[in-house]
């Protein structure tokens, strides 16, 4: 499969702050009392840039062994690389699905719940009309204590076709408006 935008998933040794934050959140969930198992969905996982930092930042095999990992990406090559990295980390389970984001809700049933969803550096590559349904589809797949971590580039060193330079406050407005429209309580949002 090919991605719809000028998408490049890079795998570098450099730890970017957004990936470091994802690992910090994951580490907190793993260390929380009573968390024997963490289902982690890495949406648009790319070549596994978060995974690639995991053994260094969560060195305890007993903590990593609590993770069931599901990666999801449109690019076969990315999925292959991510799966290879994940398979070497002694996780509880590893699965990587290749699919278009618009097919996410078909490929990952709503009964399947996740404690942690990472969705980094990808919102700007997707059609805007897909974002609202996708966020709802993700929220429906969080378990009762689930955490969704979305990060995108607020500033790009080189302008990128289709880039959405929203900052955290813009994203908060999108989510609070969506929840208002749905008649739900306010979500816990951290920018
Ligand atoms: C810039 S990379 C980010 C990868 C990773 N999340 C990270 O933070 O390094 C964007 C990823 O989104 C994937 N992607 C782009 N459009 C997609 C689509 N329509 N459906 C599924 N994945 C898509 C690309 O294949 C690519 O791996």
Structure description:
This protein is α/β, with parallel strands linked by helices and 191 residues long. The protein has one domain (17-182): Rossmann fold, CATH 3.40.50. It is 35% helix and 19% strand. The protein is built from 7 helices and 5 strands; from the N terminus they run αβααβαβαβαβα. The chain has helices spanning 17-31, 54-57, 61-64, 76-87, 104-107, 128-139, 168-182; strands spanning 38-43, 67-73, 93-98, 114-120, 142-151. Strands 3-2-1-4-5 form a 5-stranded parallel β-sheet, with helices on one face. Strand 2, helix 4 (76-87) and strand 3 (93-98) form a beta-alpha-beta unit. The longest helix has 15 residues, at 17-31. The model is unreliable at 1-6 (pLDDT under 50). The structure holds S-adenosylmethionine (SAM). S-adenosylmethionine (SAM) binds at residues 3-5, 7-9, 44-46, 49, 73-75, 78, 100-101, 120-122, 125-126.
In short:
The chain has one domain (17-182): Vaccinia Virus protein VP39 (Rossmann fold), CATH 3.40.50.150. Helices cover 35% and strands 19% of the residues.
């Amino acid at each position: 499969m090919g991605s719809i935008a000028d998408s490049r998933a890079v795998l570098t040794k450099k730890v970017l702050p957004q990936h470091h934050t994802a690992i910090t959140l994951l580490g907190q969930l793993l260390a929380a009392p009573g968390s024997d198992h963490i289902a982690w969905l890495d949406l648009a996982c790319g070549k596994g840039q978060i995974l690639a930092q995991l053994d260094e930042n969560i060195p305890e095999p007993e903590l990593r062994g609590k993770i069931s990992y599901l990666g999801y990406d449109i690019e076969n090559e990315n999925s292959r690389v991510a799966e290879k990295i994940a398979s070497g980390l002694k996780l509880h389970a590893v699965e990587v699905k290749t699919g278009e984001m618009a097919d996410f809700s078909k490929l990952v049933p709503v009964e399947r719940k996740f404690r942690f969803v990472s969705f980094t550096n990808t919102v700007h590559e997707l059609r805007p009309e897909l974002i609202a349904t996708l966020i709802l589809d993700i929220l429906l797949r969080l378990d009762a204590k689930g955490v969704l971590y979305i990060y995108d580039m607020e500033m790009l060193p080189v302008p990128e076709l289709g880039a959405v330079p929203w900052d955290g406050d813009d994203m908060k407005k999108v989510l609070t408006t969506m929840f208002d429209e749905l008649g739900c309580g306010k979500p816990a949002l951290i920018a």
